[in-house]
Design brief:
The chain contains 10 helices and 2 strands, in the order αββααααααααα. With about 270 residues, it is mostly helical.
Length: about 270
């Protein structure tokens, strides 16, 4: 693309986009990610799904992780004994989060010291097996399903709803590379700078070109080609993130997340047009 054409394209892009200063920076709009509910979560009374949304810079943010938790659950954090029968966890339970008591079949209160990887008994690493995550998620569903506690006390029904919501949140966070990467940075105390604008001229040029391709695409063949390109870019930057995180190069890890966020948004736009 010639400099003259790039300048014209940038000018047109800036005119079409609101609240973007014409100084080689770019802010994203803030669409919310709508994920279809699982059959499990639709049966949880008063279930409040965690919010996944992009801020003005296109970064994925999480909110509402603790918003559904009652004060009673926070006071009754999981301990070494069951709150109902006072039994200690069994040997198998001791090696896993104590969400459910095998002795009395009672669901335990939420323990926020347990992270999402621990909930599913997974090693804290970026590359995880989807089948392992899916299988362990279904195992928890069988124990925490609302139908299993409908005749229990209100306290235990509250615990079940809260545990179920957190397990669902954990599953939805860990199942995609982008949200999993952001969560791993969060666990290490690294926050993505959501106020930082994109000023890389190469990235700006790439963004404009791809957006124009999506807007001008008139058939599914073209859209599927763009989608495959974005999937390949996501794969490459996921590998870059994994390497950067492993070596504790958090600046490179955040750059990878920034790229992945953009490519993920493009993929969503393409899917909408297909």
């Amino acid at each position: 693309m010639s400099k003259r054409k790039l300048c014209m394209t940038l000018s047109n892009f800036l005119r079409r986009t609101t609240s973007i200063p014409q100084n080689s920076t770019l802010n994203f709009s803030s669409p919310q990610i709508k994920l279809s509910p699982s059959p499990f979560e639709t049966q949880i009374p008063n279930f409040h799904k965690p919010t996944f949304h992009y801020n003005s810079l296109g970064f994925l943010r999480f909110s509402g992780e603790r918003s559904w938790c009652s004060k009673s659950a926070e006071k009754l954090q999981s301990s070494s004994r069951c709150w109902n029968c006072d039994a200690f966890p069994t040997a198998s339970e001791s090696a896993a989060p104590f969400l459910f008591c095998e002795s009395c079949q009672c669901i335990q209160p939420v323990d926020y010291s347990i992270d999402y990887f621990q909930i599913f008994g997974l090693e804290k690493k970026y590359d995880i097996e989807d089948k392992n995550l899916e299988g362990k998620y279904k195992d928890w569903q069988k124990k925490l399903h609302p139908d299993l506690v409908h005749s229990k006390s209100q306290k235990e029904r509250d615990f079940a709803a809260e545990q179920s919501a957190r397990v669902i949140d954990a599953y939805r966070t860990l199942r995609t590379p982008l949200s999993r990467g952001i969560y791993m940075l969060k666990l290490d105390g690294v926050e993505v700078d959501e106020e930082k604008t994109i000023s890389d001229p190469d990235l700006l040029a790439e963004i404009m070109e791809i957006r124009e391709e999506v807007e001008e695409a008139t058939n599914s063949e073209t859209l599927n080609y763009i989608l495959s390109q974005m999937q390949e870019k996501m794969k490459n930057w996921s590998t870059t993130f994994a390497d950067a995180f492993q070596s504790q190069n958090f600046e490179e890890a955040k750059t990878s997340i920034q790229r992945m966020t953009y490519y993920s948004r493009v993929m969503e736009e393409v899917v909408k047009k297909l």
